[in-house]
Amino acid sequence: MTGPREIEIVGDLSRLPTSASGARHLVWWGNIGFMLIEGTGFALAAAAYLYLMTQAPAWPPRGDALPGLLWSGLFTAGLLLSALPNLWVLRCARNKDVAGVRRGVLAMAVIGLILLVPRGFEFAHLGVPWHRDAYGSVIWLLLVLHTTHVITDWADTVVIGTWLFTHEVGDDQFADVEDNSNYWTFVVVCWLPVYVLIYWAPRAV
Amino acid sequence: MIADLERVPQLDATWRDAPGLWGFLTTVDHKRIAARYVVTALLLMFLAGMLALDMRWQLSTAENTRMGPQLYNESFSLHGSTMLFLVSVPLMEAMALWLVPLMLGTRNMAFPRLGAFSFWLYLGGVLTLWLAHAADVTPDLGWFEYPPLSGPAYSPGHRADIWAQMITFTEVAALAASVNVAATILKMRPPGMTLARMPVFLWAMLIASIMTILSMPAIMLVTSMLIADRLVSTHFFSPAGGGDALLFQHLFWFFGHPEVYIIFIPATGFVSAIVETFSRRPLFGHNAIVLSIMAIGALAFGLWVHHMFAVGLPRLGNDFYTAASMAIALPAGMQIFCWIATIWSGRPRLDTPMLWVVGFLATFVIGGLSGIMTASAALDLQLTDTYFVVAHFHYVLVGGAMFPLFGAFCYWYPKATGRLLSERLGRIAFWLIVGGFNLGFAPMHLLGLLGMPRRVYTYPAGLGWETLNQVATAGSAIAVAGGLVFVGNALWSYWRGRVSGPDPWGGSTLEWASASPTPAWNLPYTPRVDSLTPMWRDGPLRVMEGLALDRREVLVTSVADAAPLYRQKSAPPSIAPLLAALATTAMFIGSIFTPWAIVAGALPIGAALTAWFWPTRPRAGAAEAKA
Q: 3-state class of B553 per DSSP?
């Protein structure tokens, strides 16, 4: 058959809505895809850590100080607490509350910036430079990997916040806020195993 | 009824690209992007094939002086890296980018600009490797650059960095393409195309994409660690600093083995589509084939250590990976039986696409059997790093993936160009390539058993290797000649081939419903599907109307049942993906020389991404001002 195929119209899609939220939205799935990629990256970096740990006679190697608990503890507490306003923003986005998402995204941008302060001190208190030994290399790797995610999501929050305050907010922007909020939850969840590996695994061995 | 002719000019106006160079740089049309991928990858296949021929020339006689050891090392490193990272995987992605929306009857990919970004970044990887080669900074440690050889102590200069960073380019591109393909298949199927009614081709592309997402982070991580060892003196792989060189091999092969199946599984999608159409009956054992692909996808993650049998791992580990490697032959065999059953019980026609499937079946089975042999840790210890392994992986990769790809090229060429390839030239190319390939690579099994190691630039006379090497060289030359006929056919047919019409083969799936070549908007209406072979339904094609004609809009449906959910805006053309890729390229290249490039590069990349995603909506307060 080489001519144009005959057709029969059996339905009309024009009454469908032009947006959706949550897992019904297309971009939600793209977001999940990138979380899966980065989550795999975290898991493999953690596997590299455990591999090196099992090969080493001492962990940390003799002469290396243990990583400091103060700033990392502050960061961890702050990050966990940030989940609360983050969930509140998520709820505002789902309820299509313009004033709520504007305020909430601004708050999350400020919180992200504040969290970078204890994160900076964490690097200073890791107790070993990355170039001393493989132990130092791999804890720096984990911390850099996570910090990259904090900074990326913070920058995304700032851009979305700028947009929300200067433009009319539509359904697609609520979906953007929702995706950004889900991504922050991912950043929080990924930190917990990384925190245990960097700060508690050397103390437990 | 016939499609309403007034829709066409409206759709044309909405979906067309800007004319000229600006349109070329800004397009987000999945077909144009895929065509670029295909043309670039085929050009590289030619270049890497020439390298192979050059190496065969060198090996055709003992103590030949065409190449010295350094040039030989560079040649096989460039050949392998190009074929694996810049040809095989990108070609499979290109086929997905091109065919997935057509087979779904949708207007574009889920994330059109991400598709453009993937290509530009891939091109960055291509230029990184080949411009460096032009500047005589060619990687020379094979396609997997193991430390400590690739570490700072043994590889000064930037050859290893070029290799590692080329990988970063291509893997970011592949990961972006995979998310795009997976989201498109999961969320943009036409109404009625439930998961149970999804053609094998789409299953293959979905599973290959998920495998990419789960495996490629491993190589991104390991090459980043290698660059860190070289650039900022970390000790991941240096035993003196408590690191471990084997960690590199584990992470590399955690990616590397699934990679083989990321290349092979899309090929099973091509074979399934071709076998169905040319046997003129629905695929035998559809569910069995889909489950086999899933099983291969899962098992592929459990056998990476069979690339490392010779490094002295615990015996129990070797036993486990031997068993897992042999187990994967079961689902692979199941698929082959299903294809044979389809051909057997159908009314097969032997046009060139089907001819390639026959070539695939014969060649791939040989490669599969030598795979079962090398899966045995005990035997592999004897065979590893010999020409037996070279023969094996060329049989599975060329026979198992490239032959189906050539068949797919012949099958879908009329859809892309509106013209049929010449069958006569196609048959000549087929026999030259398949015959030449087998003549070239079958003797390598024997050479391997006779003890000829791989990656040697020459060998002394009197070992009994010369005749077999000469046969291998002759076979390679014949296959390359066949490749030239194949490309010549494609070029000649592009202008002179017979006009094909929309559906020259009587295909079973929705891509054959569109005009050939397909217009920018693909299908005039949204199809409604009620079987695995919608084009074989008696009577008219059932469609739905209601998607916007005056703006770019696509239909989003539910994951399992493909029930219509909402209408989604589809991104228009933009220069931002190219700018983002250029900024990323600058950062990747800079980071070969200084870690500060990552910091400095973050700002331009952030700016390009912001431009990319910046929505076009009125300013806050505009509505009030208007009122």
A: strand
The answer to whether residue B258 sits within a structural domain is no
Residue A65 backbone zone (phi > 0: left; psi -120 to 50: alpha; other: beta):
beta
Hey, is the C-beta of B565 within 8 angstroms of any chain A C-beta?
yes
- Please answer yes or no on whether B526 and A13 come within 8 Å at the CB atom: yes
Q: Taking a C-beta distance cutoff of 8 angstroms, is the pair B207, B264 a contact? A: no
Residues constituting chain B: 627
Q: What is the dihedral of CA B348, B352, B353, B354, to 10 degrees?
A: 30
Cβ separation of A163 and B615 shorter than 8 Å? yes
ipTM: 0.95
> Which residue in the set A41, A48, A135 is minimally distant from B247, CB to CB?
A48
**Nearest CA-CA distance, residue A100 and chain B, Å:** 15
Euclidean distance between the first and final Cα of chain B, in Å?
A: 46
Does residue B221 sit at the A interface (CB-CB below 8 Å)? yes
User: Whole-angstrom Cα distance, residue B96 to residue B88?
Assistant: 13
Counting the structural domains of chain B, the total is 1
Hey, of B8, B211, B280, B556, which one would you mutate to test binding to chain A, going by the most A CBs within 10 A of its CB? B556
B627 touches chain A (CB under 8 A): no
Is residue B397 less than 8 Å (CB to CB) from chain A? no
DSSP character at residue B538: S
First-to-last CA distance in chain A? Answer: 72
Per-residue model confidence (pLDDT) at position B377: 87
Answer for the pair B407, B360: CB distance below 8 angstroms, yes or no: yes
Residue B320 domain-assigned (yes or no): no
The answer to whether B217 contacts A29, with C-beta atoms less than 8 Å apart, is: no
Q: What is the pLDDT of residue B310?
A: 86
Q: Is the pLDDT of residue A2 over 60?
A: no
| Residue type present at position B25 | L
Amino acid at B42: L
Please report which helix (H) or strand (E) contains residue B429, including its range.
helix B423-449
Q: Which residues of chain B does A30 touch, with a Cβ-Cβ cutoff of 8 Å?
A: 110-111, 114, 179-180, 183
Chain B contact set for A20 (CB, 8 A) = 556, 565-566
Taking residues A140-144, report their average pLDDT: 98
**Residues of chain A positioned with their CB less than 8 A from the CB of B244:** 51-52, 55, 134
Q: Do A1 and B506 touch (CB under 8 A)?
A: yes
Query: What pLDDT, in 10s, does the model give residues A5-16?
Result: 789 999 999 999
Mean pLDDT in residue range A44-63: 96
Tens-place pLDDT, residues B10-58: 999 999 999 999 999 999 999 999 999 999 999 999 999 999 999 999 9
Q: Is residue B425 part of a domain?
A: yes
Question: For residue B518, how far is the Cα from the chain centroid?
Answer: 22
**Residue-range domains of chain A with CATH:** 69-204 (1.20.120.80)
Asked if B433 and B482 touch (Cβ cutoff 8 Å), the reply is: yes
Does residue B229 contact residue B160 with C-beta atoms inside 8 Å? no
Which among B225, B215, B214, B228 is positioned nearest to B247, based on CA atoms?
B225
Contact list in B for residue A8 (CB cut-off 8 A) is 1, 539-543
What's the CA angle centered on B361, arms B358 and B364, to 5 degrees?
Answer: 140
Of A8, A15, A130, nearest to B1 by CB-CB distance is: A8
In a domain, residue B148? The reply is: no
* Cβ-contact B353, B506 below 8 angstroms: no
Range of the domain at B458: 348-502
Q: Of all residues in chain B, what percent carry a pLDDT higher than 70?
A: 98
Work out the burial of residue B602: count CB atoms within 10 Å of its CB; fewer than 13 is exposed, 13-18 middle, 19 or more buried: middle
pLDDT tens digits for range A101-130: 999 999 999 999 999 999 999 999 999 999
Please tell me the distance in Å from A30's CA to the nearest CA on chain B. Answer: 6
Half-sphere exposure of A72 (CA within 13 A, CB side): 22
| pLDDT < 70 stretches in chain B | 1-4, 620-627
